Amino acid sequence: DIQMTQSPSSLSASVGDRVTITCRASQGISNYLAWYQQKPRKVPKLLIYAASTLQSGVPSRFSGSGSGTDFTLTISSLQPEDVATYYCQKYNSAPLTFGGGTKVEIK
Amino acid sequence: QVQLQESGPGLVKPSETLSLTCAVSGYSISSGYYWGWIRQPPGKGLEWIGSIYHSGSTYYNPSLKSRVTISVDTSKNQFSLKLSSVTAADTAVYYCARGDGFHIWGQGTMVTVSS
Description:
The complex is a heterodimer of chains A (107) and B (115). Chain A contains no helices and ten strands. By secondary structure, chain A is an all-beta fold. In chain A, the strands form two sheets. A six-stranded mixed beta sheet of chain A has the order 2-10-9-4-5-6, with no helix packed on it. In chain A, strands 1-3-8-7 form a four-stranded antiparallel beta sheet, with no helix packed on it. Chain A starts with a strand and ends with a strand. The mean pLDDT of chain A is 97. With 115 residues, chain B is mainly beta. Helices cover 0% and strands 53% of the residues of chain B. Chain B has no helices and eleven strands. Chain B has strands at residues 3-7, 11-12, 18-25, 34-40, 47-53, 58-60, 68-73, 78-83, 92-99, 102-105, 109-113. In chain B, strand 7 (68-73) and strand 8 form a beta hairpin. The termini of chain B are far apart.
């Protein structure tokens, strides 16, 4: 089975900083990659699908890139409301594996 | 708009079977999409349990496959999860969701396995 590895597992950044989270697949998954945001005690929310397509209603400061095995989620200017844990997930084929998550905090 | 709502017992005894239902409103399950179950143990990450296509084809997490059954009832517009022989490790918030990139989620239901 394909493993999904996120890094870092946590980060602390200042408001306005550019933040980058990486997700690596152990085998190629084309662009079948989604990113989710989960705020504390809330339901996960889809941010990006097909590696780089922004879900409707998601602020444009979020962007995704990558294909094959290496993917990134970028927050261009970190805002206080972006404090959350971010997960990647592959969906090219079963099993639909999630990454371990990246917890983003404000410095 | 499309809404999903999980329901089922919040407490299950060890060795018994966990049963949850996801009621779908605003969309007919038989019209398409994958419908999935995801869980999240307290303080931990997300784990995909399995999914069912509107046609009835099922796909399960290999680590849970021997204990999981997902089914769909198009007449009630709902799909269900059964997880057998539960242990404390199955204590989690259980979510149902639509899609394979999961773009619509239920609110989640906490299930505790304890005697």
